Amino acid sequence: MLSTLMNYRLYSADMAKSLTRVSTQAVVQRDTEYYKANIGKVKTPDDLLKDQRLYAYAMKAYGLEDQIQSKGMIRKVLESDLSDAGSFANKLTDKRYREFASSFQFGSANKAAIQTAAQTEALTDAYSQHRVTLAGRAATDVSAFNTRIDALLAGIADPHGTDVAQAIVSDPILFGFLEKAAGLEVTSSNRSAIKEAITSGTTSGHPGLVALKGMFNLNANGTVTSGMPLRNTFQTADLSATYFDSFGAGATSQAAAVKTNYFSDAITRVVKASDITDDPQLFAYVLTSFGIDPSITSTAFVENVLRSQPGDNTSALAQMPVSTSAQIANKERFTALNAAFNFKDDGNLRTSGVVFAGGASAQTIEESYYKNYQDTAIQNDKLKTSIFQSRLSNMKSINDLLGRNDVFGKAAFEYILTAFDIDPATESSTKIRRVLMSDPSDASSYVNMLKDERYERLAAAFNFGPDGKAATPRLAQSISAQTATGSLYAASFGTDASQATKDRIKADTKTYLTAVGQIRSLDDLIADRKTVDYALKAYGLQDATISDRDLRRLLTSDLADPKSFANAKGDKKYVQFVQAFNFTTDGKIRRDAEGAQSGAKLLSTQNQYLLQTMEKQVGEQSEGARLALYFLRKAPDVTGPYGILADKALFEVVRTAFGLPAGIAGMDIEKQAKLLESKIDFKDFQDVKKLDKFISRFSSLYDSANGSAASSPILALFGNNGGSNGILGMI
Fold it and tell me: Is the distance from CB of 341 to CB of 306 less than 8 angstroms?
């Protein structure tokens, strides 16, 4: 009869071959093929529990064969959301149940949906920031325009005798800027229209063209007016502010600065109420300062309010309704507007040169403007976001997202493009459809061929299958794996971490979860070394030297192949690291499966089943060897004494290896833990050689204690008891 140690060595010397031998057994092959063929049909815990063959296979894989009859409890385990510390599986002290639950996707799996909650949040955040992005681009355009027009003018020897207007509209950059400022659709006829607008004024009635009048000191023949510059600072600010508005960036800090410069100059020129209401920029600035939305307020009404006099019950201000709280608040704003200015009922100033009244000043108007200038834009953004989210809840396919709604038109289409800084006015729905159905993790996909990050972000924000219908998301790491990685990262700091360390762990984890959720491809992950380092530490690989090339080879390993790069490392920490991510062997990100298992989780279950089967078969010959193989598999994950005490098999190995009496189990649990801590450096279990040495010690002492290999010559080296005689004293 072989000793425990020899039995253990027979299987552990080449674990891959041992498992291959087990996998070729007829019964094992049949059960595994049945599992692989049918697990994809399982959608709910009840589906698994009803198929006894599938259920028994999975339970055996995770060492829960003795609990097969406890279907009520197992259902609760499978339904647990492992991201919730208070869920049923997380509350159980036996970690096997959590491992079992985590191998499936019932409690926390993503279902087919156009967007996950995280994707919707990221999209709405992007939309709320789109004005900042637009402002940066608009500011760049304004600066480029000013530089270019100054250079153009410097190159004209006699601007008072040259058609400068024609030179402006003939320059593509200057013309494009004015076209955008006027809010014109791009057409070839715009050159003559803009030239007319900046010289003698327009006859078209287009508000954008009308606004261009007076922004340049140009004569009807295109020459610069004698004795005047092409533009003064007042006109420069006016055009810049107009461009910000047309660009959709009017409610930003950059635009506010430009508009304030304009206001400070324009207000000094006011001599009558109509000077405010006839100037679009000045009108909008003043009303915004008083919390009034200029986009829904008529200039005629505002002029009448400015001309209203105290005690005149027939004035526009006196006639404002006050039936509701909203009407009362509105009248209060207009009353404050009226009181801030010094106009008579004919619209002229009461005192020449004195624009303000009641303690108001240019400074107080500016201060109020900076408090209020974003309010209307923010409210509009909230309304559009609300409309989008409302529509999203009823969407089932890409047609619903890109199509026209009877009530809101193409609001959803415009919303998503604006969020990613793509102009809805010039983008075709056909192109966006192809983008949304592309895989951003596939280097050869349509979206990646565009070489534009905006479209890549757009594609990653939605989940559409090749049929245009909602699919499960592509996540570099599933939600459950993110949770597990975070827990392992925290555990890597030990149980006695200081508050400062705990705060750091929390901050690191928050950063990691945000970053890993935004990974769109394998290249993205490899380039983000901070995120990679977090995951490596979580899986005990912080000291490993892994190049970008090897990282790619790891994450694209086929874990079903014993010779793959990850498996060939001979350290299951590498395998666990790879299993934590959703990369395929060709580097793409696989979708979360809607079924019970897929990808690495399916492979892991099959491997676990083979290990359990092998250990059981070994146990039929040698119970000690079975314990040794079990310890080899589980011990590297144990980081403290309670991990040993919570597992009877692990405890039996440790008790035997140290010659501890069986009665130790009756001691106070904390005393048992302290005893184990005094005897074990748990980091040794993660060292292959030290772990093997420990198991060899157990194996020899197990045979001695159980009399199963008393004649083995190996035992003579150790003496006849479980103490420290012989060579044991040297270990």
Answer: yes
